[in-house]
Every structure is written in structure tokens, then in C-alpha cells.
Amino acid sequence: MKKAFAILLAFAALPNSASELRVTLPLASKHFYCASNQCIDLNETNLGIGVEYASYGVIGFENSYSRQSVAAYKTFEYDMNPYMGLGIRLGGVTGYKEESGMDVVPLAQPYLRMLPIDWLSFNFGVVPVGLIDTKNYNLVVTLDSQITF
Q: What are phi and psi of 100, to 5 degrees?
């Protein structure tokens, strides 16, 4: 978490325009489609903090296995109207070596972005977890919020 906080401060020091800086707060996840009869209880509260600047982001959070994870990504977004949009985060995430055997696992997270007010959004994402853990669950639905400066 210390690394994620240091990265957050570094990004916050960058000059920004009105809509290019966002603070991201991961909130929760829900795991679906258990692939075996030995389903395990996973952490569904994934609190953390991150920052996004000019479509590049870093987030530190507690992952589904109650370990610290850091995700680095690039976002691509399409606004359908002022209150709703579609996006995808593409990058990599740490913290899943025990399940995947990889230090950094590829990240592909499409999401629906809801903007109830112009400086606050809620992102409902979907993460296929096949590269992380195919024995237990196949899909994770995520929720995070973003504050735009």
C-alpha cells in the first residue's frame, strides 16, 4: 500500500487539466460461476486507492485472496451520453502469483461508467479470471468509484 500511495502522490504532483486527473477507490467484487465442487470463500471487499491521469492509471487494493495487489493500466472510454459511458482497462496486475505462477497477470476489465454528478462516477466492471484461477471461479464483477478533479 505504501508503494501505491507514493505513486498516487507522484501523479497528484503532475500538472493537470480539469478532467484528466481521477482518484479511484476500489470498493467491492462478486465472484461467479464456480468451476468445481470445492468453491472457496474469497474476499469481496477490495478496498484501496489509485490514480488515473490522461487515461493511465495505477491502483493498489486488497485482492480476492486478501493479498496486496497493484494494477497498472491504460483506459479507453466512450461516452454514450453525459451520464453514462463504456470503457476498458488494459494492463497488468500483481498479487496472484500463488494462483497463476506469474508475477504480473494480464488485466482486461471492460466496465460501464455511471456519472450521477459530473465529478463522481461509479464503474461496474467484469473481469474474466481464467489466467488467475480456473479451479474456483470464472468471472468477477467489480465496483469502483472515481472522483474527477
A: -105, -25
Which tens digit of pLDDT belongs to each residue from 52-83?
999 999 999 999 889 999 999 999 999 999 99
Euclidean distance between CA atoms 73 and 109, whole angstroms:
10
For residue range 91-149, list pLDDT tens digits in order.
999 998 888 888 998 999 999 999 999 899 999 999 876 656 555 667 789 999 999 99
- What's the predicted TM-score (pTM) here? 0.80
The Cα–Cα gap between 112 and 14 comes to 27
